[in-house]
């Protein structure tokens, strides 16, 4: 039996574990922390197609959405309360002009936006609606994937750091360490210098404000059109675009900021100020709502905004599955499925799509920048 | 009205408009000077720190969420000739400004403090040269079946509501848990005309026998305890040496079951010691540690210009708070150049001795009053999110072994109290130190508008 070692038990590692176990591979997951200790525990749980332009990432997102729906009953059984997969729909809004709905969305005028979100600011003049967008409780989803993989024979080793892949008895080792992937050095030299790293992924910090539990007043994932520009930007400096959404438990989550400041955990009043201003501009009633928590997380930023999925061009046995930036929750099932397909020699053929083109995600696209 | 802690900590009494029913806004005069030192907390520790620093020549502002100074121990209401001496001296001092009805809701290691009124008004930011953190503590309640029911309140909450608003938690009340505060509350309630059916504390006087050498060195404590017991006997309030096992609700009444008896009451006041308020210390970069005496999270070291005092340095009561508060005030005055090394050392000497003596007595008190530790699956662990110990154990079976993963899988500590009430119990269940529950960058819930800064542009240009 082919043995796969997966390093990292976040949503991507967990999805790789489940997909590989489903294809009959012998799976062991190594996690240096506890459950959901990294970015998966800090995310909003986005499963979005609305923020992706046509191309390989949208293809991956569409595959992933199908897999989320397919895996939902299995995952709901694994954790108390289920994974809270909500088919809530996404709404992009603008205070300046029309929003391009792309091939999947529906263009809305001001009245159309207000029909979907009655409490939206009167300043919003247009929008686009994407019924395919979903939200999930990401921590429970990751833990449910690990539990489902264990039912199929996988082993999950928490609080077990991997310092060198040489110590692992496996035919393939998958680097699913997310925002920490750039620090992962297959030979175990620490700290890894840029010459030794196998990935150029680095952290991109984001803050979230959490309100007190509220009755449902925001029905969709609502975000301002400039979010798309910020996601696509390479700028290291602070960028903010407003994302507001309710949760089944009642609190409203307010995002999203992006800044490349390494793993800095210091608070940033400017980031929180912009989140507050942006949220009030979209939903004026939020001004009087109380905030009970603020927190931050680190997205795995990839230089070309596409994940790395596939074999390492240099180190034998090493595979990559990371670099999804803010889309890791949504893209995890398709990433796991693709990794398992590639490992079982079925090329880019996944169960859902006979010929998903994995070329765009090949890690060797950065080869000229990585020391050989 | 539903309430639990009664002092603004637990968020259980928040009304739909975001106000905590247990707090009242206070009239605040504008600051007429720029404070060199800000003291957080106007209990015995904070007031002692403010007075010590002010007498050395420091300009001090004291922030407290109460409408009147004094904290849980000294709070009496309007300042008058009958107020405790410490309160009167602070109120009369020209270099001390009291910012009452206010809270620090966010703090940074560079000593930036963000303040807001308890009603969410008057948000402002201050950055003094020195900060004394003396936020005090609130009741720890060890979960038992029924502790989430309306009518179950903390001992400190019942005391605060009575002292401050003249509000009686019920005509018939059971006082239960463990610790000396139970007797004090029972006396206050019974003297106010409340029918206290009994005080249930499984710790008997004989538990003090191994600590006699400490007890004889604290005659004031013995006299006080004797006075409470004599007064309760005169008021006809029995003291039962047995623990409260469960509470259920039947209509408007609560049925409280003890080991050997069942009583019907309107309210149950419970307390099992105290939990220091550590979120500001954590936010300011203080080193946190676990006090081995009672398992609470305390401060073990502070960054430059930040000082901790009172219960934050180890739950020890008013004597310890006055001593550690005075020491913190002196240290702040020394840092600000108002006391030289010799004057500081000379002034500090006797307070160090008093702090040590108070700590000795507190150590014995913690050893005697150990709270219960076994929890049934059906018992509620997290009141805000209604999560039972059974659900928490199910998450632990899936691999959750730290506060963060337990929270993410079950919502324990994710609700309005943010782990203030359940953190100690959850940490005990996980077998980990409770300090993870101290990290709350938003130290007190505030309106979203509090994050807006007048000095910053509203949106990106």
Question: What key attributes describe this structure?
Answer:
heterodimer; A: 372 residues; alpha/beta; eight-stranded mixed sheet; six-stranded mixed sheet; 23% strand; B: 461 residues; five-stranded parallel sheet; 23 strands; globular
Task: Explain what you see.
The complex is a heterodimer of chains A (372) and B (461). Chain A is α/β, with parallel strands linked by helices and 372 residues long. Chain A has seven helices and 16 strands. Chain A has helices at 11-22, 56-76, 110-116, 138-151, 226-232, 269-282, 328-343; strands spanning 3-7, 26-30, 46-47, 90-94, 106-109, 126-130, 134-135, 155-157, 172-175, 202-211, 221-224, 239-246, 252-258, 290-301, 308-311, 318-322. Chain B contains 13 helices and 23 strands. Chain B has helices at residues 44-55, 71-74, 85-92, 155-165, 181-191, 212-216, 219-235, 279-283, 317-335, 341-368, 389-397, 403-410, 423-430, and strands at residues 37-40, 60-64, 96-100, 102-107, 113-117, 124-126, 130-133, 137-139, 152-154, 172-178, 195-200, 239-240, 244-250, 253-258, 262-265, 267-272, 274-276, 287-290, 297-301, 306-308, 380-382, 387-388, 446-447. In chain B, the strands form seven sheets. Chain B has a five-stranded parallel sheet with strand order 3-2-1-7-20, covered by helices on one side. At the A-B interface, helix 4, helix 6 and strand 14 of A face helix 11, helix 12 and strand 23 of B.
